[in-house]
Amino acid sequence: MYLNKRAQMRLIGVTAIILLVVGAMVYYTGSTQGAYEGDLASVVADKSLVGKQVKVGGTVVAGSWDKKSNPMRFTIRGEKDTSTNGPTLKVVFTGTVPATFGDGVVAIVTGKLGADGTVEATDMITKCPSKYESATGATPLADLMGKGASMEGKPVRVTGYVKPGSIAAAGTSGDRFVAAQNADGSGTTLGVTFSAALPDGMKDGSQVVMGGALEQGKFVATSVALEASQK
Amino acid sequence: MATLGLLLLGIAFLAAIGAIAAFALGKWARMGDGMSKLGYYATFSAAIALTIAVVLMVVAFFTKDFTFQYVVENHSPDTSSLAWLYTLSGLWAGREGSFLFWAWLLSLFSAWVAYRRFSLRDALSNMGIMVTNVVLMLFSAGMLFSEPNNPFKSVAIGSDGSIIKVIDGVSQVIGNTSTSGMNPLLQHWAMVVHPPTLFIGYAGLTIPFAFAVAAIIENDGSKLWVEIVNRITVFSWLFLGAGIGLGAIWAYVVLGWGGYWGWDPVENASLLPWLTGVGLLHSFTMYRKRDGFKKWAISLSAVTFALVILGTFITRSGIVQSVHAFEADPVSLYLFLAMILAAFAIAIAGPLLRGETFKGNDEFESLAGKEAAYYFNNVIMLVAGLLVAYLTITSGLKGWLGWLPLAGKSIPPTTYDSVARPVGVLYAFIIAVCPILSWRTTDGPTFWNRLKWPLVGALALFGLLMMEFTTSLQPIYNKMIALKATNAAALKMASAGPAWYYSAIAILGFVAASLVIAVTVSMFVTGAKKRAEARGESFGAALWNILTKARSQSGGYLAHIGIGIILIGLVGSAMFVYDNTYTFPNKAGSQFQVDQYTFTFASGQSRTLDNGNTVDEIALDVTRGGKKVGTITPGQTTFAATQQTRTDARVLSEPLRDIFVTMQGADENGVTVNVKINPLIWFSWSGFILLMLGTTLASWPKGGAQPVAVDSRKGISRKVAKR
Predict the structure, then answer these.
(1) Closest CA to A148 of A193, A210, A190
(2) Of the four, A23, B295, B357, B611, which is 20 to 30 A from A56 by CA?
(3) Hey, are the CB atoms on A37 and B395 less than 8 Å from each other?
(4) Do the Cβ atoms of A195 and B672 come within 8 Å?
(5) Distance in Å, alpha carbon of A229 to nearest chain B alpha carbon
(6) A126 near A98, Cβ under 8 Å?
(7) Touching check for B360 and chain A: CB below 8 Å?
(8) B624-680 residue pLDDT tens
(9) How many CB atoms lie under 10 A from the CB of residue B234?
(10) For residues B162 and B134, which has the higher predicted lDDT (pLDDT)?
């Protein structure tokens, strides 16, 4: 079989050119446009990321957004963070808001990190909310009740245990479930109102971390999550 | 009842092992045909066991048997006329079910090949079916020995709807039936059909891999293995492509971002084997017709299979963030990783170890020949597949892998686009000229002769496209660029390069598309003319005969025309989207201008459906140049059961562009909507349909005899009638 050396050399040559050009293009655009991906706390802490592209996810802070505003502005807090003063990131997003955006939804935004800690996001995807949260920094139920009327209407993060047998389906009248001081249902108890989906795996005696406020003797929860160490 | 399912999985697992043993013993322990026959029976048994398991699951869904944990978590609460379809789709909606579904399809493909080759039971087929059983065994093992992947877990349901599971001997409530079930986003017809079509493609692409391995084991470089698997490969690639298209359609109408491809990791996962699959199909053509590209065929069969598994690995391992990704589990991680590495090893080692056997008829005389075009097709597709695979996982490359290029960085769509666009246009030019190149080399005059008339057609088409470019596309680009400070989409457009470069890519894209369409159409015209002359048929009859008799080639050419049309659609709807957000007063008669369209707010309403969901909707009248285009009613649905909300985007289609509107929010003061103009998007959808039709034609069974031993001197396989 005779081999046409010249044609083969040309073939290899053109292939090499294609590979080099494509490789260079990818490397160049990838380096300049590629985003550092990390969790919220480390992105906030890392000053070297200012001015660079970042991709960071966090839970949308209830009430921090208005879907009608253009550009959309909102705040996200680290998915695992349950304290009320943990690091947050402000986001300014000029694109189309995804279909499932809302309170407690995990939003993963990509954009330039500004010096003021705001992300000018050009991309956003949303995921279903994480069902686990750490109880560190959350007020134990007994303390909340102990403070009494002064806590009325004030947004808090509180932790307690699901009183056995108290979980009810959404839409039924009465409490969604009852939070108790202790896992067996003893101690101080507090009825909880909550209309959204309860986290998977929540059962009798589960330790929960809730965000919301006391209103007229009931806790109106805006978010309910399982205590993270139960994972 | 769920335990019966587990039992059936166990039977399938044992049957697969039995088949492997039977074939291995039949060959290496020289126990002969009697033993190999058992392998065939075991293959049929595995398929039967898995079929019963699937039926069991489907029955559980339709009877709402909540003792199956999988049914509880994936049943659809829908009550519309399509409810039965959503109920059925629960089978493949979740991680465990999709695993079962895939394994079942694999067992069916395996059994089909076994059935077709049973009368011959040749060495090659025996080894091929043995390999498919290895893969099936691994899939079954994944479901049996890994809790997160087991589709047949049992639970009990309490009187209040609580879901009770026994964990470590203790009964615990793990949820409630009122809040569990299928994600509402999945309740759309395209989303129902999308996974099964993809899985048919994935499962089917195991077959060429298995037979490539068989050819290596049997040291048989003849085209027999290719003849056996060719049509299944085309069929599988067809379904894979259809699945990708359906996913794009769903993304377009349901997800509300007005686009259909975002280079999301799981989108990429399905694209990877499709890309190398193109190379594979064309290598098979060379193998069958010219006894060439043998090493390519072996390697691409293995790489395509590796990428199929890589795709599911990306989806299930948690290695990358994606809207699609299931939660991670370690068993799938190691199981799939092992399969990927083994397949890649075979792709490289196979052709090396059997170099002499798979030496093909592959001399290159010049770059201006068909062989060179096929070669560059393979190179571009292989590089594209591997590159997209790499870019998809870069964000997960940390720790000891951190030194690799772009490690730790998440690659945005703009990077993929920056390479895909110019390479795609170049690739389209290759598709355009290949049919008019000769084998080995093409001399100038011959090439020009063949190009003359198609060039006229191409120029006409290009003229029309340039009219659209200057009157519609270019103005959109200019308007968007002016908005880049406040508009994310505009910023992305601006960052794609200087205006002259952007226009050049678009114009070259139109040139390439025009050439692809015109040249390929001319192949039909000249072919029909020649046939009409030679056989005294009329032109129409000759054309019809070409389409129905020379199916492989005709189907391929139709598919190419489809690609040309898709390219036109891509240039318009990927590069020239007008995307902006508007707020207007919540008063009937409020107006705003979007590119050439005037929107007038007509009314807003809120209504509650039978199932308790509430729908908030607004109506907007759209006119262009004074003429009414239509009324569009975007809105939002709030689901009673889960309180999840879903934006209901709406589309108003004109022939040359779609108007896509989502309602972002409304209150007494104002309404905010996002409007996108998607030019030429119907070219994308219709090109996709033509691509599917062409591929279907090409994969249409030939009927007749099974291919059998090869006369290696002539490279022709003899066929014997079915016994």
Answers:
(1) A190
(2) A23
(3) yes
(4) no
(5) 16
(6) yes
(7) no
(8) 988 999 999 998 888 776 566 777 889 999 999 999 998 887 777 788 898 999 999
(9) 24
(10) B134
In this prediction, residue B644 carries a pLDDT of 66
Distance from CA of B349 to the nearest CA of A (A): 21
Do B321 and A67 make contact, defined as CB atoms within 8 angstroms?
no
Cβ neighbours of B488 in A, within 8 Å:
93-95, 121-123
All CATH 2.40.50.140 domain ranges of chain A, comma separated, are 36-127, 132-230
Contact A26 B415 (CB under 8 A): yes
3-class secondary structure for B531-559?
HHHHHCCCHHHHHHHHHHHCHHHHHHHHH
Its sign, for the CA torsion A167, A168, A169, A171, is: negative
Length of chain B: 723
Residues with Cβ within 8 Å of B63's Cβ and at least 6 positions away in sequence, in order, are: none
Q: Give the integer Cα–Cα distance in Å for B84 and A62.
A: 37
Burial class (CB in 10 A: 0-12, 13-18, 19+), B691: buried
Contacts of A99 in chain B (CB under 8 A): 185, 254-257, 645-647, 649, 662
Least confident range of B60-69, B163-172, B464-473: B163-172
Is any Cβ of chain A less than 8 angstroms from the Cβ of B147? no
Angle between helices B681-699 and B551-575 (to 10 degrees): 160
Q: Which two tokens stand for residue B71?
A: 């049914």
Q: Do B418 and A27 touch (CB under 8 A)?
A: no
Nearest-angstrom CA–CA distance, B503 and B497: 10
| CB nearest to B162's CB, from A66, A93, A167 | A167
Q: pLDDT tens digits, residue range B317-334?
A: 666 655 555 566 777 778
**Nearest C-alpha neighbor of B91 from the set B82, B83, B81, B100:** B100
Of B511, B499, B675, the C-alpha closest to B575 is B499
Asked if A93 has any chain B CB less than 8 Å from its own CB, the reply is: yes
pLDDT at residue B614, as a whole number = 86
Longest dimension (CA), chain B: 86
Please say whether the beta carbons of A130 and A107 come within 8 A: no
Read off the pLDDT of each residue in A42-65 and give the average, rounded to a whole number.
Answer: 84
How many A/B residue pairs have CB atoms within 8 Å?
A: 209
Quick: pLDDT tens for B173-202.
Answer: 777 776 677 776 677 787 788 889 999 999
What's the burial of A169, exposed, middle or buried (CB within 10 Å: 0-12/13-18/19+)? middle
Model confidence band, residue B376 (pLDDT cutoffs 50, 70, 90): very high
Helices (H) and strands (E) in chain A, counts: 3, 13
Phi, psi of B407 (to 5 degrees): -60, 140
Architecture of domain A132-230: Beta Barrel (2.40)
| pLDDT the model gives residue B714 | 46
User: Does domain A36-127 bear CATH number 2.30.30.220?
Assistant: no
Band (pLDDT 50/70/90 cuts) for residue B139 is very high
Distance in angstroms (rounded) separating the CA atoms of residues A217 and A152: 9
Q: Which of B178, B387, B415 sits opposite A34 (nearest CB)?
A: B415
Q: Do A125 and B264 count as a contact with CB atoms less than 8 A apart?
A: yes
pLDDT score, position A1: 36
User: Are B382 and B279 within 8 A, CB to CB?
Assistant: yes
- Contact between B488 and A93 using a beta-carbon 8 Å cutoff: yes
